[in-house]
């Protein structure tokens, strides 16, 4: 049977960043991707925001990888000519009571190592963003936006130059534990099946990562790895009003911290998008439709801080689906990044529940997993 040193399932931003970190000329690294190219799922259906890291609990993987990933993404972009913009971000408070929460985020961010955070008064906000209405705001200078497609392409090219092989149109269908690794069976575009043995298997399958873990033999119910799908839709501003703001503008996250709330994101193409909202959906009904009937709701949500937006200015844009471990009634869940040796699966590394800030965290997650791999190889 053909053998590989390392197999990565999934060529989203996580699998790509990881392939660039673990590939070497003297190693066989395969990346399996069921679609015909890289980054066709969640990694190309997001806000492209490079988060700074003030939301997540101290010492969580989300906090640590976000803060490190923020620095790494800007470094990579600068060095390799990838488009990005450190726009800065305002998290707005519209009532006195919200000020407490803004202060909590400031302290949490500082504890996480986020630099440059400060609270702005109404007058300072007007100076920075004359068209934004807010009573106070948390200013984060290191939040920005990135051309995520070219960032993914950079990781792909780096990995390929180091000998990694990308096998598109190939879906990992079955995984069987063997003495020296895992037998992976894949199905290609014309329906034919093929099996090989891999010594290390890294599961970066995004919305399918719990299914991949299950097919390797993990009891995903017991491990609490079952994903919930949480859809987020976007609307785009179609009028000349797009020039009215320069920063990313957010309100406070929703109380259950399921999402960061509908925000305004100026994109690198000069447009302005609003979203994503957050709606748990059934897995078997997953789709990327954007409901035009939500225009009014989106306009109302952003009117709290952008009073100039009217429902008639909005057109339906894209949607994405968050692979969440946190259900609608649960509290914060961290990323699962786990070498499954203790569960009896040495050489299997699961990455599950990589929702936001997964894009930002990707290069730091790649380093974290690389350390695990170097100990195993
Ligand atoms: C609406 C929304 C907004 C977001 N905004 C931001 C943001 O602004 N900033 C930020 O940092 N993060 C953001 N995120 C989070 C970020 O997009 C994700 O964390 C990140 O893209 C996850 O990348 P991934 O590689 O794990 O998953 P994916 O991009 O989904 O990649 C997984 C890949 O695995 C492949 N795959 C699945 N099953 C198989 C199989 N059996 N065989 C072979 N291949 C398989 C899939 O085809 C896919 O290409 C947002 C997410 C959403 C949904």
Outline of the structure:
This protein has 377 residues and is of the alpha+beta class. The protein has helices at 13-22, 61-80, 96-112, 122-128, 148-161, 209-216, 295-303, 358-376, and strands at residues 3-9, 29-32, 49-50, 84-85, 89-93, 118-121, 136-140, 144-146, 165-167, 171-178, 181-187, 193-203, 228-237, 248-250, 263-266, 272-275, 279-281, 314-324, 336-339, 348-352.
Tell me what the structure shows.
The protein has 377 residues and is an alpha+beta fold. The protein contains eight helices and 20 strands. The longest helix has 20 residues, at 61-80. It is elongated, with a radius of gyration of 21 Å. The mean pLDDT is 96. Flavin-adenine dinucleotide is lined by residues 9-15, 32-35, 40-43, 45-49, 51, 171-172, 204-208, 212, 232, 276, 320-322, 354-360.
Q: List how many beta strands DSSP finds.
A: 20
| Ligand identities | flavin-adenine dinucleotide
Class by SSE composition: alpha+beta
Q: What fraction strand?
A: 25-35%
Radius of gyration: 21 Å
Spell out the helices and strands N to C: EHEEHEEHEHEEHEEEEHEEEEEHEEEH
* Euclidean distance between termini CA atoms: 20 Å
Globular, elongated, flat, extended or rod-shaped: what is the shape? Answer: elongated
Count of individual helical segments:
8
The major beta sheet can be summarized as: 8 strands, mixed
Name the average pLDDT.
96
User: What are the low-pLDDT stretches, counting only 5+ consecutive residues below 50?
Assistant: none
State the helicity in percent bands: 25-40%
């Amino acid at each position: 049977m053909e053998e590989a040193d390392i197999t990565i399932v999934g060529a989203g931003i996580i699998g790509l960043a990881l392939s660039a970190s673990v590939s070497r000329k003297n190693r066989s690294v395969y990346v399996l991707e069921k679609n015909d190219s890289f980054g066709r799922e969640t990694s190309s259906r997001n806000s492209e925001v490079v988060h700074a890291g003030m939301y997540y609990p101290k010492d969580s993987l989300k906090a640590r990888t976000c803060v490190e990933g923020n620095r790494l993404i800007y470094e990579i972009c600068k060095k390799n000519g990838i488009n990005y913009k450190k726009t800065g971000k305002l998290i707005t408070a519209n009532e006195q009571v919200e000020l407490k929460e803004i202060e909590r985020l400031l302290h949490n961010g500082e504890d996480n190592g986020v630099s440059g955070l400060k609270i702005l008064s109404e007058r300072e906000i007007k100076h920075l963003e004359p068209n934004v209405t807010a009573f106070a705001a948390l200013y984060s200078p290191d939040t920005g936006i990135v051309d995520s497609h070219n960032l993914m392409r950079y990781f792909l090219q780096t990995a390929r130059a180091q000998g990694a092989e990308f096998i598109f149109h190939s879906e990992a269908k079955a995984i069987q534990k063997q003495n020296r690794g895992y037998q992976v069976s894949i199905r290609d575009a014309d329906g034919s099946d093929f099996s090989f043995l891999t010594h290390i298997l890294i599961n970066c399958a995004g919305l399918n990562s719990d299914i991949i873990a299950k097919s390797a033999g993990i009891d995903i119910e017991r491990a609490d790895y079952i994903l919930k799908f949480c859809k987020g839709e976007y609307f785009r501003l179609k009028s000349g009003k797009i020039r009215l703001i320069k920063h990313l503008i957010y309100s406070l996250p929703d109380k259950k911290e399921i999402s960061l709330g509908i925000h305004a994101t100026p994109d690198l193409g000069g447009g302005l998008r609003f979203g994503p909202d957050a709606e748990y959906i059934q897995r078997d009904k997953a789709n990327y439709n954007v409901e035009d009937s939500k225009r009014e709701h989106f306009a109302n949500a952003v009117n709290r801080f952008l009073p100039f937006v009217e429902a008639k200015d909005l057109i339906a844009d894209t949607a994405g689906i968050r692979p969440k471990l946190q259900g609608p009634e649960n509290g914060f869940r961290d990323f699962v990044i786990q070498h499954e040796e203790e569960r009896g699966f040495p050489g299997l590394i699961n990455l599950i529940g990589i929702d936001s800030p997964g894009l930002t965290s990707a290069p730091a997650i790649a380093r974290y997993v690389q350390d695990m791999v170097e100990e195993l190889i």
